[in-house]
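thread: overnight batch results

M.L. [08:02]
morning all. the overnight job finished for the chain we discussed friday. pasting input first so we're all looking at the same thing
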Amino acid sequence: MAVLSSCASAPKSEKKQESPTKKEASQPVVKTEKATPVPAPTTTKAAEAEKAPASSASVLEVLEIAIAKGIQDREAIEVADTFTVDVGKLYCWTKIAGGVDGNSVVHRWKKDGEVIAEITLNVNASPWRTFSSKAIMPEWTGNWVVEVLAGGNVLKTKAFVIQ
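M.L. [08:03]
and the structure it wrote out:
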Protein backbone atom coordinates (compact mmCIF):
# COMPACT_ATOMS: atom_id res chain seq x y z
CA MET A 1 0.00 0.00 0.00
CA ALA A 2 1.42 3.37 -0.95
CA VAL A 3 1.05 6.40 1.32
CA LEU A 4 1.14 9.85 -0.25
CA SER A 5 1.96 12.92 1.79
CA SER A 6 -0.49 15.84 1.84
CA CYS A 7 2.31 18.35 2.51
CA ALA A 8 3.50 18.91 -1.09
CA SER A 9 3.91 22.54 -2.05
CA ALA A 10 2.05 23.98 -5.04
CA PRO A 11 4.01 25.21 -8.06
CA LYS A 12 4.53 29.01 -8.14
CA SER A 13 2.43 29.47 -11.25
CA GLU A 14 -0.62 27.97 -9.62
CA LYS A 15 -2.84 29.64 -7.11
CA LYS A 16 -1.99 28.57 -3.57
CA GLN A 17 -4.67 26.50 -1.86
CA GLU A 18 -5.91 27.23 1.59
CA SER A 19 -3.97 25.33 4.23
CA PRO A 20 -5.73 22.21 5.45
CA THR A 21 -7.26 22.09 8.88
CA LYS A 22 -5.25 20.46 11.65
CA LYS A 23 -7.38 17.29 11.43
CA GLU A 24 -6.96 16.97 7.65
CA ALA A 25 -3.18 17.50 7.82
CA SER A 26 -2.65 14.68 10.30
CA GLN A 27 -4.34 12.03 8.15
CA PRO A 28 -2.28 10.49 5.32
CA VAL A 29 -3.77 10.08 1.88
CA VAL A 30 -3.94 6.41 0.96
CA LYS A 31 -3.65 5.38 -2.65
CA THR A 32 -5.11 1.96 -3.43
CA GLU A 33 -4.00 -0.08 -6.38
CA LYS A 34 -5.99 -2.75 -8.12
CA ALA A 35 -4.36 -6.18 -7.79
CA THR A 36 -3.44 -7.89 -11.01
CA PRO A 37 -4.44 -11.56 -10.98
CA VAL A 38 -1.57 -13.99 -11.46
CA PRO A 39 -2.39 -17.23 -13.27
CA ALA A 40 -1.94 -20.41 -11.24
CA PRO A 41 1.08 -22.47 -12.24
CA THR A 42 0.29 -25.46 -14.38
CA THR A 43 1.51 -28.83 -13.19
CA THR A 44 1.40 -32.32 -14.56
CA LYS A 45 -0.30 -35.18 -12.77
CA ALA A 46 3.11 -36.74 -12.13
CA ALA A 47 4.33 -33.56 -10.42
CA GLU A 48 1.15 -33.43 -8.33
CA ALA A 49 1.62 -37.05 -7.28
CA GLU A 50 5.15 -36.27 -6.08
CA LYS A 51 3.82 -33.42 -3.91
CA ALA A 52 0.81 -35.36 -2.60
CA PRO A 53 0.83 -36.32 1.08
CA ALA A 54 1.99 -39.83 1.82
CA SER A 55 -1.48 -41.14 2.58
CA SER A 56 -1.89 -43.49 -0.34
CA ALA A 57 -1.91 -47.21 0.15
CA SER A 58 1.21 -47.69 -1.98
CA VAL A 59 3.31 -45.78 0.57
CA LEU A 60 2.25 -47.75 3.65
CA GLU A 61 3.30 -51.34 4.25
CA VAL A 62 2.18 -53.72 6.99
CA LEU A 63 5.34 -55.31 8.36
CA GLU A 64 3.63 -57.42 11.03
CA ILE A 65 0.08 -58.27 12.04
CA ALA A 66 -1.20 -60.36 14.96
CA ILE A 67 -4.45 -61.24 16.69
CA ALA A 68 -3.92 -61.35 20.45
CA LYS A 69 -5.62 -61.48 23.84
CA GLY A 70 -3.76 -58.38 25.02
CA ILE A 71 -1.26 -55.58 24.44
CA GLN A 72 1.69 -54.99 26.78
CA ASP A 73 4.48 -52.46 26.23
CA ARG A 74 3.05 -51.76 22.76
CA GLU A 75 3.42 -55.42 21.75
CA ALA A 76 0.83 -58.15 21.19
CA ILE A 77 0.69 -60.83 23.91
CA GLU A 78 -1.01 -64.24 23.88
CA VAL A 79 -1.04 -64.32 20.08
CA ALA A 80 -2.98 -67.15 18.42
CA ASP A 81 -5.02 -68.12 15.36
CA THR A 82 -7.81 -69.85 17.34
CA PHE A 83 -9.64 -68.50 20.40
CA THR A 84 -12.46 -69.79 22.60
CA VAL A 85 -15.79 -68.01 22.61
CA ASP A 86 -15.27 -66.85 26.20
CA VAL A 87 -12.21 -64.76 25.22
CA GLY A 88 -14.14 -61.53 25.90
CA LYS A 89 -11.95 -59.17 23.85
CA LEU A 90 -9.37 -59.52 21.08
CA TYR A 91 -6.80 -57.12 19.66
CA CYS A 92 -5.48 -56.69 16.15
CA TRP A 93 -1.91 -55.37 16.45
CA THR A 94 -0.04 -54.03 13.42
CA LYS A 95 3.43 -52.67 12.73
CA ILE A 96 3.39 -50.35 9.72
CA ALA A 97 6.21 -48.83 7.66
CA GLY A 98 6.11 -45.72 5.47
CA GLY A 99 3.91 -43.58 7.67
CA VAL A 100 4.20 -39.84 8.17
CA ASP A 101 2.14 -37.44 10.25
CA GLY A 102 -1.42 -37.48 8.94
CA ASN A 103 -1.48 -41.04 7.57
CA SER A 104 -4.05 -43.56 8.73
CA VAL A 105 -5.09 -47.16 8.25
CA VAL A 106 -8.37 -48.92 8.88
CA HIS A 107 -8.76 -52.22 10.72
CA ARG A 108 -11.88 -53.87 9.25
CA TRP A 109 -13.10 -56.73 11.46
CA LYS A 110 -15.21 -59.31 9.56
CA LYS A 111 -17.03 -62.41 10.80
CA ASP A 112 -18.03 -64.99 8.20
CA GLY A 113 -17.67 -62.31 5.48
CA GLU A 114 -19.83 -59.69 7.25
CA VAL A 115 -18.24 -56.42 8.37
CA ILE A 116 -18.58 -56.13 12.15
CA ALA A 117 -16.44 -53.03 12.75
CA GLU A 118 -14.11 -50.56 11.02
CA ILE A 119 -11.64 -48.65 13.17
CA THR A 120 -9.47 -45.82 11.77
CA LEU A 121 -6.02 -45.57 13.33
CA ASN A 122 -3.35 -42.89 12.90
CA VAL A 123 0.06 -43.81 11.48
CA ASN A 124 2.28 -40.81 12.24
CA ALA A 125 5.80 -42.20 11.73
CA SER A 126 7.71 -45.17 10.39
CA PRO A 127 7.72 -47.76 11.75
CA TRP A 128 4.48 -47.29 13.70
CA ARG A 129 2.77 -49.81 15.97
CA THR A 130 -0.96 -49.52 16.47
CA PHE A 131 -3.86 -51.73 17.44
CA SER A 132 -7.63 -51.97 17.58
CA SER A 133 -9.79 -54.13 19.80
CA LYS A 134 -13.13 -55.87 19.48
CA ALA A 135 -15.38 -57.17 22.24
CA ILE A 136 -16.36 -60.71 21.30
CA MET A 137 -19.94 -61.76 22.01
CA PRO A 138 -20.56 -65.40 23.07
CA GLU A 139 -22.63 -66.07 19.93
CA TRP A 140 -19.86 -64.88 17.57
CA THR A 141 -18.25 -68.23 16.82
CA GLY A 142 -16.96 -68.64 13.30
CA ASN A 143 -14.30 -67.60 10.85
CA TRP A 144 -12.94 -64.09 11.31
CA VAL A 145 -10.57 -61.88 9.38
CA VAL A 146 -9.13 -58.44 10.01
CA GLU A 147 -8.28 -56.46 6.89
CA VAL A 148 -5.81 -53.58 7.12
CA LEU A 149 -6.68 -50.89 4.59
CA ALA A 150 -5.13 -47.61 3.46
CA GLY A 151 -6.70 -45.39 0.85
CA GLY A 152 -9.44 -48.01 0.35
CA ASN A 153 -6.90 -50.70 -0.62
CA VAL A 154 -6.35 -53.86 1.42
CA LEU A 155 -2.71 -53.97 2.53
CA LYS A 156 -2.83 -57.18 4.55
CA THR A 157 -5.29 -59.61 6.14
CA LYS A 158 -5.15 -61.85 9.18
CA ALA A 159 -7.57 -64.76 9.59
CA PHE A 160 -8.49 -66.40 12.90
CA VAL A 161 -11.21 -68.62 14.34
CA ILE A 162 -13.46 -68.23 17.39
CA GLN A 163 -14.89 -71.57 18.53
